[in-house]
Amino acid sequence: MTRERLPTRRPNETREIAHAGHRFTVTVGFDLQARPREVFADGARIGTDLGHVISDACVVISLALQHGCPPELLPKSMGRVPDLGAGPGHGALAPTGRPADRGFGLP
Questions:
Q1: Which of 89, 91, 32, 39 is nearest to 64 (CA)?
Q2: Euclidean distance between CA atoms 64 and 72, whole angstroms
Q3: d(Cα 82, Cα 48) in Å, to the nearest integer?
Q4: Residue among 95, 102, 94 at smallest CA distance from 36
Q5: Does residue 12 have a pLDDT over 70?
Q6: 76, containing H or E segment
Q7: Contact 28/61 with Cβ under 8 angstroms?
Q8: What is the pTM assigned to this prediction?
């Protein structure tokens, strides 16, 4: 697959989110057909390990979206964390960072 070039000016949506005691500003950029094609996030302290990981994750997600990966496939491929809401001992797993949970209108 080839990378889809994005127009210089494109719609985007920015949200404030909190996760594990950290606050982030996340922006999703859309192509002219309203499909998500890029992700930016900030809020972690510059130069920290967390900041580097988030920045790199945004690049990888953006590249996947621009190469045609459907957004709904990304959470299925990401790491899993225990679902603490399921109660002790249940060990249920939940996807991390599901786009639909972030309110960006993604499937």
A1: 39
A2: 12
A3: 25
A4: 102
A5: yes
A6: helix 74-77
A7: no
A8: 0.70
- CB–CB of 23/35 below 8 Å? no
Q: Say which residue the tokens 């494109």 belong to.
A: 10
- The DSSP secondary-structure symbol of 24 reads E
Quickly tell me which residue has 């998500």 as its tokens.
Answer: 36
Separation CA 73–CA 50 (nearest Å): 24
Residue 41: which of 49, 31, 51 has the closest Cα? Answer: 51
Q: How far apart are CA 23 and CA 47, in angstroms?
A: 16
57-102, pLDDT tens digit by residue? 999 999 999 999 999 898 888 776 655 555 554 444 444 444 444 4
* Region of residue 67 (left: phi > 0; alpha: psi -120 to 50; beta: else): alpha
Q: What is the mean pLDDT of the chain?
A: 79
The full length of the chain comes to 107
For residue 71, CA distances in Å to 43, 49, 67 come to 23, 26, 11
Average pLDDT of span 45-57: 87
